[in-house]
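pasting input
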Amino acid sequence: MNKDKENKSVNQGIELEEASAVTPHNRAIYEAGKILLIESITTGREFCKFMISVSTGAIPIYLGLLKFVLPDHYTLSLEQGIFAVVPAVLFLIASVVFTFGYYPQAGCFSLDIINEIESERTKTIRRRAKLTWVGFGVFLIGALTAITNIVINLWTA
Amino acid sequence: MFDNSENITIPNCPICGGSHTYSLKVERSLIMKWLTSMDMHEKSRAVRITRLFTCPVEYKDFQGTFVLHDTSGSRIKSIEVIGLAEESSDE
């Protein structure tokens, strides 16, 4: 109580109300913030890494399903062939985009200058987020085209 | 919007008991508006903020709750603890 009175009397513009040890709740929130700050860079990278394998893995799965759906000795017309290839190409493009997202970014900053680290971190997160959205968008279009393709072929064959 | 550096002195550090002065970066937004007679007698609004400070002696964190005042013409946007102010005294 005496400490508080003393604290209030010192500051003119800013009134100090209380100075105390960090409460367990605030400490937990502080730790959560720290984790959020540190892991926000790795989360995007891990997602890109995961999506590279998903995108590349989707190509043989799609082609396998297509082959399974089509009857034996069935020959696709030129238009059907082009349409059948589109999802595989989209999956490939998505995996390339995710690879760019996973690739380490070249940057130069000094560990002594906090602002430089912060701006570099923000730049990396923004760049990765952009690539992630583009890659995921392409992957989704590829998946939709693949499903449509399989359903159409199942219907016509 | 303008930044202002303000100092806060904690005479009784809960970690070491010493007195430390910290520099705060106070960001305020200036709101342009017609001044009315009501504004002339406007009471300032108290903004209670809790921030973490690091004791320079023990290098441990403690929390400080302080009050700043703003009006409808000048709003406090953010407050950041920059670090120890130059004129601080550590005991």
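fyi DSSP finds one helix and five strands in chain B.
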